[in-house]
Specification:
- The chain has 23 helices and 20 strands.
- The strands form two sheets. Strands 1, 2, 3, 4, 5, 6, 7, 8, 9 and 10 form a ten-stranded mixed β-sheet that branches. A six-stranded mixed beta barrel has the order 12-13-18-15-17-16, surrounded by four helices.
- Helix 2 (33-43) crosses helix 6 and helix 18 (619-653) packs parallel to helix 22 (731-749).
- The longest helix is centred in the N-terminal third of the chain and has 44 residues, at 220-263.
Length: 760
């Protein structure tokens, strides 16, 4: 359990949380989420409401009759629902409760379960787990789930429910043997587009049932909002990198066609002399890039579809939706739109060829007007620079337009590198805060005897904490869980109450401060916005007939609108007899967490589960960093190709000059230095400009992604650049320029005087 996901943790403590989480445990999905979720929801006839009823307070017959209630389009059930407690050390499972539903088949009128591996349970001792390919699950028939009576459930298949209606499915007979206490019904309503319509439909099906029969429900709208929250966070990243890539591609096309026109003046003159009209000449140069553009778009679309698969699978981690990929309409836009963009980019340089007369073109030849370059080179020569360096530094001034386009491509490449480094720093800091990396190494959970497979803890609350400290724990934070209510509201809030060294957990506080005294709570930005509250406001918490007043002293980096986090004194006012449910243990540096957990289990006796807490990046961070790294690498390569193209064009134009320089004694090494230096200067300028642009993009993109995900980032997560990194990042422009220039520079260095004279 990730303690930072405290609201979700409370809602799932009684639900299934094996490889596929139960209804209340759904975390949402990502990628291009909403359309994929809607497609899967429609294809699988997803439930508008997953309703759970008290098996002792209502009969199956009463529940079956609710299918005929007003507004019910279709219903499935009743299905017996039981909770199996998965102990520690079971391969492929997270220790804790797993919700199991007895269902005869995966199909039906509501929530058709997608059985993607193995088969559906057909007899006793078999189970199909709710998990999807996006979760990295692989079917292994030897996997088992132990039961309290010593028997096991053998995993015979993997399936996914878009409604997240269970953690696993068994036959109805097997479910009855698990002594279920709840019954599940799945409903589709004729009107379920708003929360009010869903509540109205649920009220209609429960109208004739005994009071209190409904113990819990999940709306499909909550799942959709969860989908939209996570997928919306990826949109700013994708749009930014996609826009950068598009601009770089346009710059390179303009550079290529412009260079071809300049270096092909004589060719243009010949075409016009033999009868080509101006429009035909312009068409030649537009078609010259349009044909490879179409081929490039075909290959790029195919490659994009292949790369999108694993990235979208990571974004959809947790819901098990299969078949996520790029929409065919997106492929169509890319295949039709990108060649059009290329043609428009080529139109400007092509019109220049259109305007040239045959005489002007032939007389211009292919040599650049180097007056500006020669003037700069003369001034640089007085600085006692090596002659190859001064000549190289002056070359960009011969073609200012081409130089500007090449520099712009390098600037965008450095911008992408800077933005990616900032995203990596921010997301790593976010993941460390979310997962509490480095703050504790062992997590001890306390069994609850009222849960299946649970046992009575052998030690009391204080004795368990004392044992942990005596075994060598440096810091121990006890965690208590309790649902409470805000005075004046019927909605339950998920409460987490901390005792001990809670400051060591390093919760990310956006506004205000961390808990430092009694009568304080910290909440999320969503909690404040939903209720019109602010840091510093007092609120009243109720539990049964008890009430306590607390003050909101901090806003957490969290999106959950229904959670409060407070200290142990607050819990004592509301539930004086409640004990801690978890202990988070920080060990001395270098201590063996596994040995500590084993020693505690041996000394504490039954009723406790102790396990290591590994430091790891969460899935959202891995996905964002993967996106950023991939796009940055692509943009850097494309920018380097732009430099490559510039050097090739310049070399073609300056073949006569190169021959003359070699004839008066310039060595191949000096030619290479001269050519690389001409681009290295642009790389240095591009790095100096791209660095602040990348920082600005980071300042705009990260908060936008946070707003889409309903997460407020603290200022510390935006200030991720430090002096060494700020010094190194501008050199990425130099690296892009040198890498792009080196190969054509070596080719130019190998040209002989005889080759140049023969070509001329």
């Amino acid at each position: 359990m990730r303690i930072s996901s405290w609201s979700s943790a409370i809602s799932t403590r009684g639900e299934g949380a094996g490889e596929g989480e139960g209804a209340a445990g759904c975390r949402g999905v990502g990628g291009h989420g909403r359309s994929s979720f809607d497609d899967a929801f429609s294809r699988q006839s997803g439930a508008h409401v997953v309703a759970v009823f008290d098996g002792s307070g209502v009969t199956d017959g009463q529940l079956a009759r609710t299918a005929g209630s007003p507004g019910v389009q279709a219903a499935a059930g009743p299905f017996a629902e039981a909770v199996v407690n998965v102990p520690e050390g079971v391969r492929g499972f997270v220790a804790g409760p797993l919700t199991v539903v007895g269902r005869p088949a995966p199909d039906g009128r509501v929530d058709r379960v997608d059985l993607w591996a193995g088969r559906w349970p057909a007899g006793p001792g078999e189970i199909a787990l709710n998990s999807g390919p996006a979760n990295g699950a692989s079917f292994a028939p030897d996997r088992t789930v132990p039961l309290p009576d010593g028997s096991v459930l053998r995993v015979v298949g993997f399936a996914s429910s878009v409604s997240q209606s269970a953690g696993g499915w068994v036959t109805p007979e097997q479910a009855a043997a698990l002594h279920p206490t709840a019954v599940q019904m799945l409903y589709r309503f004729t009107a379920a587009g708003t929360d009010a319509e869903v509540r109205a439909g649920l009220a209609a099906v429960t109208a004739d049932l005994p009071a209190g029969a409904l113990t819990g429900s999940q709306s499909h709208l909550d799942l959709r909002r969860s989908v939209a929250t996570r997928t919306g966070a990826y949109v700013p990243f994708l749009m930014t990198f996609g826009g950068l890539g598009l601009v770089v591609a346009v710059l390179i096309v303009v550079n290529v066609v412009g260079g071809a026109v300049v270096s092909g003046f004589r060719h243009i003159g010949v075409l016009k002399a033999v009868g080509f009209t101006p429009n035909q000449v312009a068409a030649v140069y537009v078609l010259m890039v349009s044909v490879p553009a179409v081929l490039g778009c075909l290959l790029g679309t195919l490659l994009g579809d292949l790369l999108a698969g694993p990235l979208l699978a990571g974004a959809f981690q947790g819901l098990g939706i299969r078949g996520t990929g790029v929409d065919h309409r997106v492929d169509a836009v890319a295949l039709l739109g990108m060649p059009l963009v290329v043609a428009l980019a080529a139109l400007g340089p092509a019109l220049r060829a259109h305007r040239l007369s045959a005489a002007e073109a032939i007389s211009a030849g292919s040599a650049p007007r180097a007056g500006r370059a020669l003037g700069v080179q003369r001034r640089l020569g007085s600085l006692r620079l090596p002659r190859a360096v001064s000549l190289g530094l002056g070359q960009p001034f011969a073609r200012p337009a081409r130089t500007a386009l090449t520099t712009a491509a390098i600037v965008l490449g450095v911008t992408a590198v800077t933005l990616a480094s900032g995203l990596t720093g921010t997301m790593t800091a976010y993941s460390d805060a979310e997962e509490h990396n480095g703050t504790y190494q062992v997590e001890v959970s306390v069994d609850r005897p009222d849960r299946p497979g649970g046992s009575v803890p052998a030690l009391g609350d204080g004795a368990a904490e004392s044992l942990l400290r005596s075994l060598g724990a440096v810091q121990v934070t006890a965690v208590g869980w309790q649902n409470v209510k805000l005075a004046g509201s019927a909605q339950s809030l998920s409460g987490q109450f901390l005792r001990g060294d809670s400051a060591s957990l390093h919760y990310a506080v956006v506004k205000g401060h961390w808990l430092d005294g009694p009568g304080q709570v910290v909440v999320s930005g969503g909690f404040l916005r939903q209720r019109g509250l602010a840091v510093g406001d007092p609120v009243h918490l109720d539990l049964g007939e008890r009430r306590t007043t607390v003050t909101i002293v901090g806003q957490l980096m969290s999106y959950d609108p229904d959670g409060v986090l407070s200290n142990w004194e607050t819990l004592q006012r509301l539930a004086p007899e409640q004990r801690a449910g978890d202990y988070l243990v920080q060990l001395a540096p270098g201590a063996d967490a596994g040995a500590f957990a084993a020693a505690f289990r041996t000394a504490a006796g039954p009723g406790f589960r102790a396990q290591e807490h590994p430091d790891e990046l969460n899935q959202g961070t891995l996905t964002v960093v993967g996106f950023a790294s991939l796009f940055t690498a692509m943009l850097a390569v494309v920018a380097a190709l732009g430099v490559f193209n510039t050097v090739v064009l310049t070399t073609l134009e300056r073949r006569r000059s190169l021959g003359m320089l070699k004839s008066i004694g310039m060595t191949p090494r000096q030619v290479t230095v001269m050519t690389v230096t001409s681009m290295a200067a642009l790389g240095a300028v591009g790095g100096a400009i791209g660095l602040p642009l990348g920082i600005l993009a980071h300042r705009l993109v990260v908060p936008a992604a946070g707003r889409a995900a309903r997460i407020d980032f603290p200022a510390s997560m935006l200030h991720v650049w430090h002096a060494p990194l700020l010094v190194l990042l501008p050199f990425s422009g130099l690296l892009i320029a040198v890498l792009g220039a080196y190969v054509p520079a070596r080719s130019a260095a190998r040209l002989t005087i005889a080759q140049v004279l023969r070509d001329e």
